[in-house]
Amino acid sequence: TSKFKEGLAKTRDVFVERVEDLFSRTKKIDEDFYEELEEILIGADVGVTTVMNLISDLRTEVKKQKIEDPSQLQPILTEKLVELLSGTQNGTLNMASSGLTVILFVGVNGVGKTTTIGKMAHMFKSQGKKVLLAAGDTFRAAAIEQLETWGQRVGVDVIKQQSGSDPAAVMFDAVQAAKNRGADVLLCDTAGRLQNKINLMEELGKIYRVIQREVPDAPHETLLVLDATTGQNALNQAKMFGDKAGLTGLVLTKLDGTAKGGIVVAIRQELEIPVKYVGLGEKMDDLQPFDSEQFVHALFG
Ligand code: GDP
């Protein structure tokens, strides 16, 4: 919880402080009150439709429970937010019951994919697992180097080929290496260039099929990495990858860098895909399994 608290400081300072200020300052629950609350929630990227529903739920509760004092509404709002987020909780990853687990990471350049892979490698390694990384973004030489830097930092090997080579061939190599070395987890980086979406999707499809063919039930997870600071853009990216990439979960990065942590609620409401992990900083241990209750309580607790 304290990690969440720290990482969500910006959201707490802006969004939560405004909510708390509104609830304590306002004497009466009237139209102005609802309007201001609406504005604060939308400002935190909660999403317009969700905000409308939330406000309407609050109105109902006010009538039903005959609430007059705004401060009494605060716990109800907290509860509603937890409810809205339910189903997204905990960072349970689907793992192979025995043998190799393969996790594929997809997402647009710059969202924090490499960093997330590095952090997750560290997490698995600390659990005593043998981890390998696959440098599947062969499009950018810098991407391979960056993954290697993370590999060295964490102390895990990176399977790579020179830049420009076929990413599916890298994945084939990586899977063989993982099997030969008895690795427990293979974390696969992929390209995230947006200039040519069709090529990118084809490339991801090919990678997917190689992994599927070489390892039973793999990939065990296909995680889309999204940058929380990009708000609505993040949602659009998820829709773009959505049906084609066979996504099983989301990683929401840079929550520490935004005051608009409400994006988590919008994502939950608008997408069918669960948020499994969140990035709360740039360091190795700044990756946290997502838990809706912890999240809301870190904000309002
Ligand atoms: P990629 O292009 O998707 O692989 O993105 P990178 O992993 O290179 O990350 C892009 C930038 O975002 C880097 O400067 C990272 O340090 C930074 N970054 C990644 N995750 C987080 C996070 O959770 N919080 C913060 N503050 N920065 C992050």
TrEMBL record:
Keywords from the UniProt entry: Cell membrane, Cytoplasm, GTP-binding, Hydrolase, Membrane, Nucleotide-binding, Receptor
Gene3D superfamilies, per database record: P-loop containing nucleotide triphosphate hydrolases, Signal recognition particle SRP54, nucleotide-binding domain
Reaction(s) this enzyme catalyzes, per UniProt: GTP + H2O = GDP + phosphate + H(+)
PROSITE patterns, alphabetized: SRP54
Residues binding GTP, per UniProt: 107-114, 189-193, 253-256
One Pfam family in the UniProt entry: SRP54
Membrane-topology annotation of the record: Peripheral membrane protein
Family: Belongs to the GTP-binding SRP family. FtsY subfamily.
UniProt protein name: Signal recognition particle receptor FtsY
Organism of provenance: Paenibacillus albiflavus
